[in-house]
Amino acid sequence: MTGKFCFAIDRGGTFTDVYARCPNGKVKVLKLLSVDPTHYKDAPTEGIRRVLEQEMGNEYCGNGPIKTSEIDWIRMGTTVATNALLERKGERMALAITKGFHDLLHIGNQTRPDIFDLKVTCPDVLYEEVIEIEERIIPKQDFDKEEEEWEEVIGTTKESLYIVQKINIEDTFQKLRTTYEKGITSLSVLFIHSYMYPEHELIVKKIAEKVGFKHVSLSSYVMPMIKAVPRGFTACSDAYLTPTIKKYLEACNIIIRKRASCHLEFKLKKEKGDRGSEGFRSGFVDELRDVNVLFMQSDGGLTQMNSFNGSRAILSGPAGGVVGYAMTAYKAMQGQAIIGFDMGGTSTDVSRYAGKYEHVFESTTAGITIQAPQLDINTVAAGGGSCLFFRSGMFVVGPESAGAHPGPACYKKGGPLAVTDANLILGRLLPQYFPKIFGKKENEPLDRNASLKAIKKIGLEISSHPSQKGKTMTPEEIAFGFICVANESMCRPIRALTQAKGYDTSHHALAVFGGAGGQHACAIAHALGMSKIFVHKYAGILSAFGMALADVVHEVQEPCAKRLVPEEEKYLASRLQNLASKSREALLKQGFSNENIICEPFLNLRYEGTDFALMCTLNNEVNFSVNAFKNEFSQRYQNEFGFIIKDRMILVDDVRVRGIGKSFIDTNETFEKVEEDPVPDSVTDIYFENGYQKSKVFLFEKLKPGHVIEGPSIIIDKLSTILVEPGCVATITDERNIMIDVGKQKKDKLGTELNTIQLSIFAHRFMSLAEQMGRSLQRTSISTNIKERLDFSCAVFGPDGGLVSNAPHIPVHLGAMQETVQYQLNTIGNSLKDGDVILTNHPSAGGSHLPDLTVITPVFRRECNKPVFYVASRGHHADIGGITPGSMPPNSTSIFEEGAVFMSFKLVEGGEFQEKKLIEHLMEPGNIPGSSGSRNLMDNISDLKAQVAANRKGIQLVNELIDYYGLEVVQAYMKYIQDSAECAVRDLLKDVGMKMKKKTGKSELFAEDRMDDGSVIQLHTIINENAGEAIFDFSKTGPEVWGNCNAPRAITMSALIYCLRSLGCLEPISVTIPKGCLLNPSPEAAVVGGNVQTSQRVVDVILKAFEACAASQGCMNNVTFGDETFGYYETVAGGSGAGPSWHGRSGVHTHMTNTRITDPEILERRYPIILKRFTLNPETGGFGANRGGDGVIRELRFRKKMTLSILTERRVYAPYGLNGGENGARGQNLLIRRSGKDTFRLESPGGGGYGAVLGKRRKESKEEGNSKKFCASNIRGSVFDFTKSQESA
C-alpha cells in the first residue's frame, strides 16, 4: 500500500460503482445512481467524496471541491462516450472525404437495420457537414497501361500506388474555412486507401489546424486498416466523441513525472481560458495534481487520461467486469473456461475468458461500425430495468428499459413494470435490506404494492386473451413466467457465443456479477447445463474492482500486404520489433520499468481468397517465427471453423503489438476460516415453480470461509442479492468468494395443455435452435458467400412440413423454405428413412433460384416410424454451372442455362454421402452447348457437407428438447406457436379489413403494376374482416415470359409473408396463382430474374393494394462483370418508398434483399476496377407530403477488357407514388466510352412519395427524417453483429 486512498470507479448507465482501498488496508465499496441531479452533479466525484468523508470526517471535504492530498490513484470506466453515441449528443463535426464519395458513410454497407420495417430507420450519421476534397489514390495493378500519366508512390505496406489526383491545397483551405466559420471545430478525414498512404490526410490536418479546428481525427491514424466505410465511421466517432470526453474530464496539458514504482503520476497544468467549473477534474480542489488518473479502454487495458479517446471508449465500463472475473474466477476455477454474466439495471453483458482476452476488431454500436480492438462483450436488452409486456399471447422481456429514471414500478417514480418488479413480487428481493433511496424524495423503501398493481394490470390483458380460455393467473405466476422468459432470452447469446467458436456451453463455469446477476445465476447455469457458479465478494461492483486489477496498455498497429512465408520472415520480424519499440518507449515514459513491460506480437491473418481474418498472437515475447504463427492460425481456424484449407496461401493484413505495463496492484485480503454452521438473519417465503418455499436469509458480511449454505436461500450483500435455488449448494471460499454447485433440479412434467409461460420459452428455444444451426453452417462452410456474406437460412419444420422457426435472415427464403419441405413430403415423404438427406433447388419444388441449394433432413425417433420434425438449410452457392459464371445469366431463356437442377436428389442415403452422383449432377450443365458445369466444384461439395452438418446439429438439438420435455409436449408447443402466428395474421387481417371497409365501404383491395417488358402483375384481395381471413388472387397476372423474370410460386409466397411480417403462417390466407403465368411458370422456364427482380415488384403490388406505402426502388440492380480469370457480382441500393408518417430512406436496399456492398478499398484492391463515384442521386425520390428516398449513382471504370452483365428493373415504369405523392425517378444504365477507358454508370431508382402537397415546390419539401437520434438499448457484440450480418446477406 502507498498510505493513501485508491479508487476504482465504474460509471454505468444506471449505477456508479466505487471500490476504494483505504490507507489502513480497509476496503470500502458503494453504489449510487449515475444520474441524480437533485443530490449531486457527478456520480464518480460524489463516490470519492463519500468515502473520504466516512474515513476522514465530514470536515475533510466540506461543501467545496475535494482535497486530493490523500489520494494516490483513480482508475475509471465511464459511459460518457457510449451515451453520447447512443443519444447523438457528441461534438459538432464535419467529414472531409475523397471527391465522389460525398454520401459513402450515409450509404454505409447499404443495408437496413430491420428487414421487416417498411419505415426504413437508420442511425443518423455523426457529421453535420461533408467536405469533398479533390484527391485520389488507387492501387497499382499488373495490367495497368503504361500510358497512364499517374505518379507512382510506395505505400506503408510496400505496395505500389498511383496518385490519380493530387490534393488541391487552395480549394481545400477555402472549403475548410467555410465550414469552420459555421462554428464546427472538430473534423474527421477519410480518404480512399489512406490506410496505406496517409500523406494526403496529413496535409489536410495541417490545413485544418491552420484554419483553427481544435480536433482533427485522421482515419489513417485512428485505425490504419483496410475498408474505408468502417474506418471512416471509426474516425468520425473519434472526432465526435473525443472532444466530449475531454469536456467531461476538462482535460488539460498533462506533464508525466516518473516514479520509482510502476505507478503513474500526472501533473496537470491548466490551459489558458479554462473555466475550471465543469467536468470531472473540476470537482477536486487541486485539479487532481499528483494523482495517478487512468481510464479503462474497450480492449480491457488502462490508458492515460490525456490518451483516452472516443473510438476506444465505447466499452470502457463493461471491459472492467471482464478483467475482474478473468483475474479472479479463472484462477479460482483452476483454469476452467469462464462465461462472464454481468446483469445490470439496463442490460446484460455476456463474455468469455479461457486464459486470454477474446477481442474483436470491428463491431457495431448504435449503428456505427468501429474498427478498434474491443473485448468481445455481447449485450442483450434484458437487465433489471427491462420492461415486461404481454403481446400476441406471449410473455415479452425488453428491449425497452425503465432506466435509472423513472426506474421500475417499485421505485415509486411512475415507472413501468420491469424484471426487478418480478423479482420483488417473488420474494427474491427483500425491501427491508435495501436502502431507503426510492420515491420522489428518495427516502422510501422499494414498494412491492406498486409492483403488484402494475402486474395485475398485465394480468387482465393475459386473462382476456383467447388462448387463456377465461383462465386467470396469480401475480406470482405471471412474475415467475416473466423471470423464466428473461432467463431464456439471456441464455440465447451465451449459447451463440460459445457454440459459434466450437465450444460446449456446459463445459464452462458461470462468473456472475452486476447488481441483478445473482438473482438469476442458478437458473441460467441450470438451463445451460453448467455445474459451477462463481460469485466474487465484490460481484455487485466487479467492473469497478476489475479496473483496480487491470494493466496499462499501449497498442501500435500498421497495415501489411505480405504472405506468411519464410521469405518474408525477416521483414515481418523487423516490423513487429519496430512496433514493439514504439510501444515499450511509450510505457517507459509513463514510469514503467523494462521488467514490468510485456509486448505481445499479433498478425492479422487470413487465407487467400477469403475475407475472414483472425488476429493471432504467440501469447508472449518470443523470436518471430513464420511457422509458429502459421501453426497458431491453423489451430485457431480449426477450433473455430472445424477445418483448415490445405495448400492455401496465408496472407498478413495487419501487424500489431500490444504493449502491457503490469500494474501489480495488491488486492489480496486474508480471512479467518470457520467450521460452525452459518446463522441466518431471517427466514422468508420465496416463490419457485411449485409455489412458495421457506428460505433462509444470510447476510454476506457475517459469512466466513468454510460456511456452507443449502438452497433455497438468499445471501444479502450491500450491493447485490444472490439467490441459491433449491438443489444448489453455496460454499464460502478461503478468499471469501461464493462458489455454488448447481444441483439437478427436479422438474414437474409439463403437460400438453397450453401454458402461456412455456409458450414464450418454447418460442425462444425453437428460435435458438435455428440460430445454432446457422452458427454451425457458418463455422463449417468454406465459400465466401456462406461463411462471410452469410447468404443462408436455417429452419425447423413440423411433421407436416409447416414452418416452426427460422431466424429472420433472408426475406426471399421465408415462404420458399416451407414450400420446399412440403413438396418433398408430398413427393417422396413415405420413402425417407433415418440417415437420408434430400438436396433440391428446382423452382417447381419450392426453390427460389438454382444457386440456392436446400438440404432437408428428417428427424426420426426410435419410437416413431415417421419423421417427427424436419430441419433444413438453404445456402446460396457462388456457382453451379450454366451459361455465365456465377449462375446468374441476364439473358437465360431456360432453367437449364442457369445451372445444375436438383428436384429430389438423395444427397445422403443410409448415412452415406453420395459424392460421385453429386459431382455428376453438378457437372451436367456442361452437356448443353455454351454452358458449363460447376466452376466451384470443391466449394459446392464442402458447403453441402457443411449444410448436412448444420442439419445434424439441428437434429441433435431437437432430440435434446424432446428428451427433456417429451415428444408429445414438444409437438404440442410447436402447434401452439404456429397457432399463435395464425392468430397474429388473423388479427392483422381483421384490423386491415375493418379499416378498408370504413374507408371505402368494402373490404376488397385491387392493385397492379408492370415489369419493364410490360408484363402485368395484378392482385385482387378479398378480406373477411370478421373471420380474419383473406383471398389473394393473382389470376389476371400476365403469362410467363421468354426471358428469366419468371418468378416461382414460392417467391410470391415469400413476398406475402414478408408483407404480413408473420412467422410464416399462411393458414388464414388462400392464394390463387394460375399455372403458366409470370408467378407460376412452367418447370423449364428461366427464373433467375424472378428471384431478384420480380419478387420486388410483387411486394410493390401487395403494398400498393393495402396502401401501406409508396413503391421503393423495386429493383436489386444486379451487376456482374469478369472474364475467364475472375467474376464479380453485386447488387446496388436505391430509394425506399415514403409512407403515411415517414419519408423514404435514401441509398438503401429494400424489401426482398438486404445485400451488403463491397467496400471501395476491397473492390479496387482485388479487381481491375476504379470506383469513380458512389453517392446519392439528389431529387430522385418522389415529391410529396412525405418524400421518397433518393437513388444512388455508382460509376465503375474498367481497367482491362471484361464482360459486363446488367439485370435491372424500373428503367421504364417508375416507382409509384401514393395518395397524391409523385413517382420516384426511374433508374438508368449508361456505358461511357472514352478512348478505351470504359465507365459504367448506374443510376438506381428513387422511392415514390406519399401524400399530396399543394402550393409547394419540390425543393421546399421536407428533408429525409428517418434517422435514429436515440437508441432504446445498446445491443452489441459479435453475436449481434453476426445476426445483423446475416440479415444483410
TrEMBL record:
Residues 7-211 form the Hydantoinase/oxoprolinase N-terminal domain. Pfam families: Hydant_A_C (PF19278), Hydant_A_N (PF05378), Hydantoinase_A (PF01968), Hydantoinase_B (PF02538). It comes from the Eukaryota. InterPro entries: ACX-like_C (IPR049517), Hydant_A_N (IPR008040), Hydantoinase_A (IPR002821), Hydantoinase_B (IPR003692), Oxoprolinase-like (IPR045079). Residues 570-736 form the Acetophenone carboxylase-like C-terminal domain. One of its GO terms (molecular function) is 5-oxoprolinase (ATP-hydrolyzing) activity. GO terms for biological process: glutathione metabolic process. Residues 231-555 form the Hydantoinase A/oxoprolinase domain. Residues 756-1252 form the Hydantoinase B/oxoprolinase domain. Signal peptide: none annotated. One of its GO terms (cellular component) is cytosol. PANTHER family: 5-OXOPROLINASE (PTHR11365:SF2), 5-OXOPROLINASE RELATED (PTHR11365). Belongs to the oxoprolinase family. This is 5-oxoprolinase. It comes from Armadillidium nasatum. The gene is OPLAH.
